[in-house]
Specification:
Blueprint (H helix, E strand, L loop, with lengths): L13 E5 L6 H12 L2 E4 H11 L2 H12 L5 H12 L8 E4 L5 H13 L6 E6 L2 H9 L1 E4 L5 E3 L19 E2 L6 H15 L1 H8 L3 E5 L4 H16 L2
Parallel strand pairs: 1-3, 1-4, 2-3, 4-8
Antiparallel strand pairs: 5-6, 5-7
Helix pairs in contact: 1-9, 2-3, 4-5, 6-7
The protein binds adenosine monophosphate.
Length: about 230
């Protein structure tokens, strides 16, 4: 895009990471934050915080999340609307885990239109279902800095101590077990995967092979984000 004087300008990007649980949306969103100065908006994190704080939204969401279902559009939208109104999001955002239904996609367009924005691109992170169950079921994070680990694929170099901050406390999400992961995958295919066709029809779909290593996926995503941000 360029302005009247011919200078190249970029609008704050609104990027959507689409993909099943375990595809690496959170990991990659944090990398894109560092690389592009964008703000990661994870509705899953916002809901977990609401659950931890015992807010009315959190109380309503808790059992649905534990079963691996989708929280109502009404609750999710109220939480996201609040977060999107904060000034730090004006630099551009990466939506991680939102939208997850056609209703949420429609509501997002209305929310953005209100501030003269629209979706820059939706990036589908393509993965293999069975591998996702294995990825999700063994994962845990450092309670101090959030660095991610996995029982089978990535243990800390020194047992019991975080590679990044040295912390010795780790936590697992209540819904990161094989049974709940299957329900989450089912919810993804039934309600979220149709959004891939939706964004394709709008000419906003990008896709990446998310079975590759974290660094390779990050490299590919960086190329996509650079390209779509300057269009
Ligand atoms: P995530 O951290 O994105 O894997 O989300 C964890 C759980 O939070 C999901 O399994 C859902 O129960 C709930 N959740 C997160 N984002 C949404 C959303 N956009 N719509 C409905 N439920 C959501």
């Amino acid at each position: 895009m360029s302005d009247l004087a011919g200078n190249v300008t970029t609008k704050p990007a609104v990027l959507i990471l689409l993909g099943p649980p375990g595809a690496g949306k959170g990991t990659q969103a944090r990398k894109l934050e560092d690389q592009f100065g964008l703000v990661q908006l994870s509705t899953g994190d916002m809901l977990r915080e609401a659950v931890a704080n015992g807010t009315p939204a959190g109380l309503a969401a808790k059992s649905v999340m534990e079963a691996g279902g989708l929280v109502s559009d009404e609750i999710v939208l109220a939480i996201l609307r609040d977060r999107l109104s904060a000034p730090d999001t004006k630099a551009g955002v990466i939506l991680d885990g939102f939208p997850r239904t056609a209703g949420q996609a429609e509501a997002l367009d209305s929310l953005l239109a209100y501030s003269g924005q629209n979706v820059t691109a939706a990036i589908a992170m393509e993965v293999d279902d069975e591998a996702m169950i294995a990825r999700v079921a063994g994962r845990y994070t450092c309670a101090g800095c959030g660095e991610g680990y996995h029982d089978d694929f990535k243990q800390p170099a020194a047992a019991g101590a975080c590679d990044k901050c040295g912390g010795t406390e780790f936590k697992r999400r209540a819904d990161d077990n094989a049974e709940t992961a299957r329900n989450r995958l089912q919810a993804y295919h039934a309600q979220t995967a149709p959004l891939i066709a939706h964004y394709k029809a709008l000419g906003k779909l990008e896709a990446i092979d998310a079975m590759a290593s974290i660094d390779e996926v990050a490299l590919g995503l960086g190329t996509i984000v650079t390209r779509v941000s300057s269009q």
